[in-house]
Amino acid sequence: MMNLTLKQLRYFEALIHHKHFGHAADASGISQPALSMQIKEMEESLGVPLFERAARQVRLTRFGEDLAPRVRDILRSVGEVEDMARLAQHTMSGRLRIGVIPTIAPYLLPSFIGHLKQEHPTLDVHIRETLTPRLITELAEGKIDTAIVALPVSEPAFEEVTIFEEDFVLVRPESDAMRPVPSAADLQLMKLLLLEEGHCFRDQALSFCNIRSALPRDGLDGSSLTTLVQLVAAGLGVTLIPQMAMSVETHSAAVSVAQFPEPRPKRKIGMIWRKTSPLTDQFHQLARIVEIAANGMH
Asked: Which residue numbers delimit the HTH lysR-type domain (predicted)?
């Protein structure tokens, strides 16, 4: 008789993600020998190897690849049972895993976490900052509970709630402060510095300027808004940043900031979660706290 445990399934999932026994053990909060023993017991229970062990990494066997999506489904369902239990307590408590994209996290999170802890002090908040495609995958797999992103994401399995809109502002060298604000057409002819591929903010900026993302560009790409602003200060071009980032990113840089004329480029910020989650009411409460935090930034 098979005797698989939830711990074994979680260690199996961790090892898939990290592809290394030591890293998976660290992420799981146990020793490497303990994790190795649990994986070995799982393989013995199933009667078939799950991983091919190499010197520096591990990879799934054919059977392991077939098993992986089923294990994710099981863990996601167990997570939803835990959510149901939290819901029955009529209070927001326990672990809450929130994903946030990098062009929101550094600016909104300090205020948001402060308000959240004030209203729900027993919450154990875990933050995951990464790009939208990764957050969508992790939300679908049950690795996070909800995410704060730029909308729309247009995933049929997810609920989307718009919380607020914010403008983009133009950041250019200090010496350009008195010049007219360029139009979207003008920006096509300028050296426009953008975030690297994969950031939704990059796509939104290109859309405003009516530039196809597939076209080759001579501008420099950065991995963060901080890098882009510093490149502008060095005289390498101009960039667009969201309004919430303005005070943090430009206060000590030799740049000028300008608002675009109407219709201004903007983005919708909101929350997404799985439609099957029993915590929908709680997520609407979270959305309200996000709105309060965002309003306090203006």
From this structure: 4-61
Q: pLDDT for 77-101, tens place per residue?
A: 888 787 777 766 656 778 899 999 9
SS3 273: strand
Q: Are both 169 and 255 inside the same structural domain?
A: yes
Domain that holds residue 186: 165-266
Distance CA 181, CA 266 (A): 16
Task: Kindly report the length of the chain.
Answer: 298
Asked if the structure places residue 259 within a domain, the reply is yes
Closest CA relative to residue 38, chosen from 164, 46, 115, 137: 46
**CB-based contact 72:34 (threshold 8 Å):** no
Interatomic CA distance for residues 280 and 38, integer angstroms: 35
What are the pLDDT digits (tens) for 171-192?
Answer: 999 999 899 999 888 888 889 9
Boundary (domain end) residue, out of 54, 89, 124 = 89
**157 and 277 part of one domain:** yes
Classify residue 233 by burial, with Cβ atoms within 10 Å: 0-12, 13-18, 19+.
middle
Residue 1 is assigned to a structural domain of this protein: no
pLDDT in tens, 225-275: 999 999 999 999 999 999 999 999 998 899 999 999 888 899 999 999 999
- Do 196 and 254 lie in a common domain? yes
217 pLDDT more than 80: no
Beta bridge partners of 248: none
Confidence category of residue 298, pLDDT binned at 50, 70, 90: low
Q: What CATH number is attached to the domain comprising 73?
A: 1.10.10.10
What pLDDT was estimated at residue 214? 45
For residues 185 and 145, membership in a common domain is answered with no
- Number of structural domains, the chain? 3
